[in-house]
Amino acid sequence: MAVSGKMYGNAILKAFNKDVDWDTDIIKVALLSSAYTPNQDTDILWSAISSNEVTGVGYTVGGATLASKTIAYDNATNVIKMDSADVTWATSTITARYAVIYDSTSGILLGYVDLGVNESSSAGNFTLVWDANGIFTVTVN
């Protein structure tokens, strides 16, 4: 499934306050159940929403660490793009409605993906394919 994320409102604020470093911090993606209701304005810390994390065969508590992270600014379009390698939980049996991206170094929530419906794997791969434009894009005005 191809997905792109929505940022939490405090993510940029926290980055400007040096609480988040996309390049050097450990950034993870965790899967959450439909019991979670994202709030871009009030959700700030992983510890406040982690009780909604899924469990299942092939899934590790806390989620997967994003690999091959990149962040770049395109001066032709005035867009900052944050991306990483796609994420797969191999040979897994899990059901999730949301994928939450967070800085596990600081515990700060960066963004989330609403999968639209509960997505499941049964002794197979559960894969997040990031949008071709990146996990997040920020337009500079």
Explain what the structure shows.
- Strands 1, 2, 3, 4, 7 and 8 form a 6-stranded mixed beta sheet that branches. The chain has a 3-stranded antiparallel beta sheet with strand order 5-6-9, with no helix packed on it.
- By secondary structure, the protein is mainly beta.
- The longest helix is centred in the first third of the chain and has 8 residues.
- Helices cover 9% and strands 47% of the residues.
- The chain has one domain.
- The protein is globular.
Q: What's the pLDDT, averaged over the residues?
A: 94
Q: Biggest sheet, open or closed, and with what strands and sense?
A: 6 strands, mixed
Low-confidence stretches: none
The coarse silhouette is globular
Radius of gyration: 15 Å
User: What is the total domain count?
Assistant: 1
Helicity level: under 10%
Estimated structural class? mainly beta
DSSP strand count: 9
Order of helices and strands: EEHEHEEEEEE
**How far is the N terminus from the C terminus?**
31 Å
Tally the helices. 2
Content of β-strand: over 45%
SSE diagram, text form:
Blueprint: E1 2-3, E2 6-7, H1 9-16, E3 27-32, H2 46-49, E4 64-65, E5 70-74, E6 79-83, E7 87-103, E8 108-130, E9 136-139
Parallel strand pairs: 1-8
Antiparallel strand pairs: 2-8, 3-4, 3-7, 5-6, 6-9, 7-8
